[in-house]
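Fold these two proteins, one after the other.
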Amino acid sequence: VLGLLVWALIADTTYHLHAAYGWVMFVSIFFWIVTVLFFVTYLLQLQLKFYVIPWPLVLMIFNAVATVLYITAFITCAAAVQPTSWRQWDYNRRAAASFFAGLTMIAYGASTFFSFRAWKGFGSNAATSQVTDHT
């Protein structure tokens, strides 16, 4: 939802006049689409059919890359906001897009942390470590 807000707010301005917003649009739309695809994959439990793919590792790498690129998009978007713009509504939308890009960056960063913990298996407790497979 946060990524959707970023690209929707930027798309509602005259972003094509500023080259910096092209990068922000690319990052936000690309990661929004891929995140929706991962969400549908997990919603339909398709990851169980593709058991060869190491899903925790894939998600950790995806979230880490998304975090790094959203850092660049956030900095680019925030630096390109011009408070003396002659179109006040563009300023408001771009400032809001910068805010939501920052929130999206934080969300992907937190998701990277939790993906790393899932990949390394830090979330297990005493009950799960005692279970043995006797098949």
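Now the second one:
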Amino acid sequence: RMETDCNPMELPNNTGFEDDSDYRDFEGADVKDMRLEAEAVVNDVLFAVSNMFVSKTLPCAEDVAYINVETRERNRYCLELTEAGLRVVAYDFDQTDDRLQTPYHETVYSLLDSLSPAYREVFGNALLQRLEALKKESQS
């Protein structure tokens, strides 16, 4: 005779959640919340935009964070960062507009590339400079 402490109806949800957290541990992505990921995104591309910072007014959680970005063209966006990627959720800082159905981008680079020609130019120039520096290093 076997005793159980849980309702069998709860099993599918529990099992799914446990599998998901095991998978995250396996992938090494067991992050406390998306804020850390958002900070890393900001640090990666801040040099190529006018302004970029993690929102302090919109709530960060385990599965979502919001990033405000102002392109060099002076356009403002609020970006949502989730496991699915990044997408524009509003055309101003610290806002979300549920009516916006913008596509997810896997990386901040592709998202900014689609929004800002000036970003594309600055980022491209930075890559060229880095390649030139590597080329000089390898020749010496």
